[in-house]
Structures are given as C-alpha cells and as structure tokens.
Design goal:
Elements (H helix, E strand, L loop, with lengths): L2 E12 L7 E12 L3 E5 L6 H8 L7 E6 L2 E2 L5 H11 E4 L11 H11 L4 H14 L15 H12 L6 E5 L7 H18 L2 E5 L3 H5 L3 E6 L2 E4 L2
Parallel strand pairs: 3-8, 3-9, 6-7, 7-8
Antiparallel strand pairs: 1-2, 1-4, 4-5, 9-10
C-alpha cells in the first residue's frame, strides 16, 4: 500500500516564547497508507483537532515533518499548500457547515466548481455521490429541509467530491443520536472503502473506532498504537 500521509516528530506550540506558551503536539508521528481507515482517539483537549489541521495543511507545525502524497510540505508556498489541500484532502467536521442557501446537490458541486470542473460535470458527480449515500431523492432540498443525519451525509459527499486521497474527519457523527450515528458512519465507511483513500477519523466512540482498521491514541502530545 502506498503512503498517503506521514507525520514525523511533529510539535505544535501556541504563543511560543511567551508565558502563555502551550505545547499541544510534542513529537507526534504517524503514517497512513492508501485504503486504510484509522481511528484517532484522544482525551478532550488533547490536541486531536490541531493534529488534523496540521495533517490537512490548515496549520503548520512548530517543528517536525509533514509529508502528503510523498511531498514534504513544510517549505511549500501558501499557494502550493492550498492547491494540495484542495486537490488531495477532504474534511468532515462534527457540524456539517453546509451553505444554507444552496441545495444538497449545489453544496456538493461547489468544491468541484472551485477546482475548475464544469457546471455539468460537477452536478453529475454531486448527484452520483448523493445517490451513493441514499439521498438521490433529496437533491434539490436545502439543509434546513434535511434531517441531521441527512445533512451529515451531504457533508460526507461534499468531502469526497474532488476525489481526495486523504479524508480527515473530526467527530463526524458526534452531533447525531446513537442510532443515526451508527447508520451514517456505516455509509461513510462504505464510501471510503469503495474509493480506496486513506482516512483518519477522530472519535470518542469506542464502537465506531472498533470498526476501523486500527486505532491511534493521542495523549500528552504523542501518538501511540492502541493494543
């Protein structure tokens, strides 16, 4: 399996050199391969969101190496990082962040339009993904007309719209009731496994973590493999 993401001895300190300095990551290392679905579990406040932001090129580490698709990115320009993030990384958050004035199919098409795809191709891909998550009958509905589980499924489809190589998800079903969470998470796993991308999914739910290929624990700024 080919390497998609590699972090080596990544540290992240906020307000360095001041009395308010806080070290969130302290020598964190991990490797994700294509086709792997990996759980990231951590105590509250342990830095999992920071780790996901560094891995997804939304934030830069204070030190250490980040390699995405074989490319070291610490010295890359902002423009190069933005292109790589847009083309290679999909994000899903606990709250869906859908644009309320747009329909489901428009929300999924938008990142493709931003990447330069034609309106027709973006809409076709959006319809295909929404049908894959069981929302083929809800294409024209706006977020307010969808249930919480349906909104999150639209968010999953949007994250996969540009065919990323890496999916990063931060408590993607944490805002749903247990039954809906389980059902929606199963759809996400199916989609991820069908596309063969690498996925790092932060969750507090041990049952969801157990469905993934392996589990990493983040504690005191470092990552360890769960038994």
């Amino acid at each position: 399996m080919s390497e998609v993401l590699h972090l080596e001895n990544v540290a992240k300190t906020y307000n360095p050199g001041t009395p308010a300095a806080v070290t969130v990551l302290d020598g964190a290392s991990l490797t994700l391969a294509a086709g792997e679905v990996v759980a990231l579990v951590a105590p509250s406040g342990a830095g999992k969101s920071t780790l996901l932001h560094v891995a997804g090129l939304l934030d830069s580490p204070s030190s250490g190496m980040v390699r995405l698709l074989g490319q070291p990115v610490e010295q890359a320009s902002d423009a190069a990082r933005t292109r790589l993030r847009r083309d290679a990384v999909g994000f899903v958050y606990q709250f869906h962040h859908l644009l309320p004035e747009f329909s489901a199919v428009e929300n999924v098409a938008l990142p493709q339009r931003a990447a330069g795809f034609s309106r027709a191709d973006a809409a076709a891909r959006a319809r295909e993904l929404l049908e894959a998550v069981g929302l083929g009958h809800r294409l024209s509905h706006r977020p307010a007309e969808l249930s919480g589980g349906e909104q999150q499924r639209v968010a999953f489809a949007r994250a996969l719209a540009n065919r990323p190589k890496l999916l990063l998800a931060d408590e993607p079903t944490g805002n749903l009731d247990p039954e809906t969470s389980s059902r929606v998470f199963e759809m996400l796993l199916d989609l991820v496994r069908q596309t063969g991308l690498a996925a790092l999914i932060a969750t507090h739910n041990p049952e969801l973590a157990a469905r993934m290929d392996r589990t990493l624990r983040l504690d005191q700024g470092r990552i360890s493999e769960a038994a």
